[in-house]
From TrEMBL:
It comes from Bombilactobacillus apium. DNA binds at H92, R111, R154. It holds the Pfam family Fapy_DNA_glyco. Binds 1 zinc ion per subunit. This is Formamidopyrimidine-DNA glycosylase. Its cofactor is Zn(2+). Signal peptide: none annotated. The gene is mutM. Involved in base excision repair of DNA damaged by oxidation or by mutagenic agents. Acts as DNA glycosylase that recognizes and removes damaged bases. Has a preference for oxidized purines, such as 7,8-dihydro-8-oxoguanine (8-oxoG). Has AP (apurinic/apyrimidinic) lyase activity and introduces nicks in the DNA strand. Cleaves the DNA backbone by beta-delta elimination to generate a single-strand break at the site of the removed base with both 3'- and 5'-phosphates. Belongs to the FPG family. GO terms for biological process: base-excision repair. Keywords: DNA damage, DNA repair, DNA-binding, Glycosidase, Hydrolase, Lyase, Metal-binding, Multifunctional enzyme, Zinc, Zinc-finger. The active site is at P2 (schiff-base intermediate with dna), E3 (proton donor), K58 (proton donor), R263 (proton donor). One of its GO terms (molecular function) is class I DNA-(apurinic or apyrimidinic site) endonuclease activity. Residues 239-273 form the FPG-type domain.
Length: 276
């Protein structure tokens, strides 16, 4: 599943390749990807030019010169592909935008969970799903006080709390495991039971980890590739995620894998004990 660093990498790649392009045709092969009226979606985007591409957490925001914004959520497996020929797209491609430079921008999604929705520019942050997101790492809204206040209201596990996006947005399973290991916090620790030191360390670790992952072009696990078909390189810097049974880089004991919040969770039972 793409997390914040992967979506940011996609955004940067798409910005270089499609900003300034006008949509000359749209082929929609699987209607359920589109939220709302499919015909309106087509009509509004035909002839529109992409002016810039923004992002909020894991949502891509394609802004058009006619005042519409296409909100695109990649969900589990969604990705964008840019090709010179339509024949290069396989059966998992569900939406194809023909661009004025003769290229094709396609949305491919094996699981078909992704969504695209058109909204008037400026209203995208009011969409229920986006408005519910907590502050994002590396922005002024994400402060140690905001993190502390958000966590203090939650009794469920810190891992589940990081995954649910309400206190801080953008971390998925990979980066949640990594930042908890760095902060020596047990994934099952109740979110409102962190020590002051753990809170400070976690706050920093989230910013640092997200920045390092963006700099590395994201993490490639499973099928993630950016818009150019390139893989991220951050997987080489992961310390615990998918390192089950290997030595903890800090204390040498074995990395364990358990289920927390329904997700496979990697941690070191020795240097990430539960607080008493
Ligand atoms: Zn350890």
């Amino acid at each position: 599943m793409p997390e914040l660093p992967e979506v940011e990498t996609v955004r940067r790649g798409l910005t270089k390749s499609v900003v300034g392009q006008t949509i000359t045709e749209i082929e929609i092969r699987y209607f359920k990807i589109i939220v709302g009226n499919v015909q309106e979606f087509r009509d509004r985007l035909l002839g529109a030019t992409i002016t810039d591409i923004g992002r909020r957490a894991k949502y891509l925001l394609f802004h058009f010169d006619n005042g519409w914004t296409m909100v695109s959520h990649l969900r589990m497996e969604g990705r964008y592909q840019l090709r010179a020929e339509k024949s290069e797209f396989d059966k998992h491609v569900h939406v194809i935008f023909s661009l004025s430079n003769g290229q094709y921008l396609a949305y491919r999604d094996v699981r078909k969970f992704g969504k695209m929705q058109l909204v008037p520019r400026g209203s995208e942050l009011n969409l229920k799903s986006i408005a519910a997101l907590g502050p994002e790492p590396l922005t002024p809204e994400y402060t140690s006080e905001a993190l502390r206040a958000g966590l203090s209201e939650r009794r469920k596990s810190i891992k589940a709390t990081l995954l649910d996006q309400h206190v801080v947005s953008g971390l998925g399973n990979i980066y949640a495991d990594e930042v908890l290991w760095q902060s020596r916090i047990n994934p099952q620790e109740p979110a409102n039971n962190l020590s002051a030191t753990q809170l400070t360390t976690l706050y920093q670790a989230i910013n640092t980890e997200i920045k390092r992952a963006i700099d590395a072009g994201g993490t490639t696990v499973h099928s993630y590739v950016n818009a150019d078909g390139q893989k991220g390189t951050f997987q080489g810097q992961l310390q615990v995620y998918q390192h089950t049974g290997e030595a903890c880089p800090r204390c040498g004991n074995s990395i364990a894998k358990i289920k927390v919040a329904g997700r496979g969770t990697h941690y070191c039972p020795v240097c990430q004990p539960l607080n008493s």
